Amino acid sequence: MKSEVLFDDGTHKWVVLGRDPDKKEEIIDTNEYLIVSEEQAVILDPGGIEVFPQVLTEVTRHVSTDKIQAIVASHQDPDIASSLSMWLGLSPNIKVYCPWVWTTFIAHFGLGVDLNLTGVPDEGIELTIGSTQNNLYLVPAHYCHSSGNFSVYDPKADILFSGDIGVGLVPADTSLFVDDFDKHIKYMEKFHLRWMPSSAALKAWVKRVRLINPSMICPQHGSIFRGDDVKRLLDWLDGLDVGKWDMGLEATDVNKSQWMKWKKR
Ligand SMILES: [Fe+2]
Ligand SMILES: [Fe+2]
User: Fold this and answer.
1) Which residues have CB under 8 Å from 93's CB, separation 6+?
2) Which residue ranges form the domains of the chain, and what is each CATH number?
3) Ligand 2 centroid to 65 CA: how many Å?
4) From ligand 1's centre to the CA of 263, what distance in Å?
5) Which residue, 142, 243, 249, 246, is CA-closest to 195?
6) 216-243 pLDDT tens trace
7) How many angstroms separate the alpha carbon of residue 146 from the centre of ligand 1?
8) pTM here?
């Protein structure tokens, strides 16, 4: 697994972990993000059980596990949060923040470990990293794609972690940063049309993020947007008509004789 520093002012650092060359073919590639602020750390979307050993190895290159104060799970998916019991098994004092609607679902990843979950209210919260003054903001991103979902904004680094928004299903050798937005669209299009259920929710998120105006948008899969590509991404998302991937499948598309056969059983 590779890691790359996205921001570092000497006391506050963002690291992306991803593009794991040893990952099994059938597992979707994920980006995990580590924030180390005055030696206290937060992990954003720590990933699934399958990638836990690789993520742990990379994290410990930057900070020891006893410094991890918190984990944020943007939503409930296994590629986001199924490793939680491993992290809490290592360091039981880690606080895990997730959307309140998913607390009792994410608890299924517990494997006998108390996951120390805090349900985040729909309007979001301000999160303090340990004793530092470098607070993070959990920004509502509901229905993009999950019905309870948050992005995370860090004013100090001016980076927005967008979870599954802006995701690209890219080949393994794709660069960590988007270098040609127009060519990158083909990696994003299918994911957004199929996994995003609501254009209204997506537009509301874009509006929110335009106000924040971050210098970088970091998704949980694919490549990172910076510079002019931040605006290009927001404009592209704003114009998307999502949640209709299967709308062409009318009832008449279903083979009638097949239906009748099932019905007779
Ligand atoms: Fe997801
Ligand atoms: Fe995801």
Assistant:
1) 116
2) 2-264 (3.60.15.10)
3) 24
4) 35
5) 243
6) 999 999 999 999 999 999 999 999 999 8
7) 7
8) 0.94
